[in-house]
């Protein structure tokens, strides 16, 4: 009888331990959630959630750029195709929180650019601006098999006087196509963002497009 009682006591003890462990694991699973990094805006492109920028376009129309109300989770397809073994794969970037501007994700000084077929049919980070004088980039990706119609952009000046007067100036030009006679000038103000964009016909010496900041709110 003593042995039988001992067996019963041990069995009850083991059952209680199993219940406790199951309960603990269940609670841990319920409380667990993945954590993601947040890519916060940089000084000259402060796309903080809840911010907006109002521009006057060609001295007549009003254009408003709106940031998303919160940081949003985002990733993008970096590659799709066959791996070294011939197996079809899709590779994605890390998932992070980023702000959106007019429904487009902004990765600090970069946007997301689609690379069209037959060159990949995937996405990549693409420059919007840089703080480094002399930095050059194309405004966007383009198929150059039938001519390079892309705008070539260069950081030509960075002036740092104080927080409110600090600016970056970008100059754009074309090397082929109908815009070859045009240049663009963009000004980015620290803690404000894009303050003006001009497209100038260098032959007629005429401004053919103008975007000028008239109001803004930075929700920093």
Word description of this protein:
- With 220 residues, this protein is mainly beta.
- The protein has two domains: 1-33; 52-217, no CATH class.
- It is built from one helix and 16 strands.
- The strands form four sheets. Strands 2-1-16-15-14-13-12-11 form an eight-stranded antiparallel β-sheet, with no helix packed on it. Strands 7-8-9-10 form a four-stranded antiparallel β-sheet, with no helix packed on it. A two-stranded antiparallel sheet has the order 3-6.
- A hairpin with an 8-residue loop joins strand 13 (167-173) and strand 14 (182-189).
- Residues 1-28 have low confidence and may be disordered.
Condensed summary:
The chain is mainly beta and 220 residues long. Helix content is 14%, strand content 43%.
